[in-house]
């Protein structure tokens, strides 16, 4: 009776008070989840980029406050520099070849490990699939600098493991072959090192994505007579297309950089600049030549290249239907 009396006697909040409470909660939510993150983004991401763009329009030497406004002179001289054009060509080659090779290999390994088991009974992966995941993921745990040092020793012309193995197999012409010292092989050898270091991460990523596909889908395909190749192409690949899209963008950004790998394998950009990348040349221009205005111009251009690359990838996957599948999956 006391409780009922207290409830009945308590004044009910007015509609105006309820609306005021809702407005306060909404304002608090917007400040916490929108205004604060946008402020952090503007201060720590957009602002440094705008500052870099300003420096790219000057002749700043990097070690003093003195700088003169030169307009677009750094950009025009950049495109007249044959070394820069060689670095641009190499970076574009990396982002065209490596993401495709890494993701194709990762998909094949992930599908084989996940659905490459017995042909009868429930669809399951290879026996000991965890072992394959570990040995493929292991190189990804090694820092890029260490990976570069290891493979620099493997490629060593006189004491390297690769030439020793090839010579032992009878290919005596490789007895002292300089894989990183020949303009025809330096880029391919460097690409293989990056491939070796990165493929394991995407194997694990794709295995997780494939395990999210219902087993009934695979069993229905098997009952319909679909082989493993058909299952991989027509069922698995479309189901994980959104994961492949994200991986393609992320991997493309990584290989356009490739700074750690390339600086260890080819500190000067390889023979005839055959392995020089944009990030390497940017570093050399800034910290070797002391031309920070030119270097920031390259950085601004590199940011535009990355934006264009990301836009192209998203456009291609939109045409392939990746966004629709991701929306359906969500």
Automatic annotation (TrEMBL):
Membrane topology qualifier: Multi-pass membrane protein
Compartment list: Cell membrane
TM stretches of this protein: 27-47, 67-85, 92-111, 131-154, 161-180, 186-210, 297-320
Pfam families: BPD_transp_1
The entry's keywords: Cell membrane, Membrane, Transmembrane, Transmembrane helix, Transport
InterPro entries reported for this sequence: ABC_transporter_permease (IPR051393), MetI-like (IPR000515), MetI-like_sf (IPR035906)
Domain annotation ABC transmembrane type-1: ranges: 88-313
Gene3D superfamilies: MetI-like (1.10.3720.10)
Family: Belongs to the binding-protein-dependent transport system permease family.
Protein name: Sugar ABC transporter permease
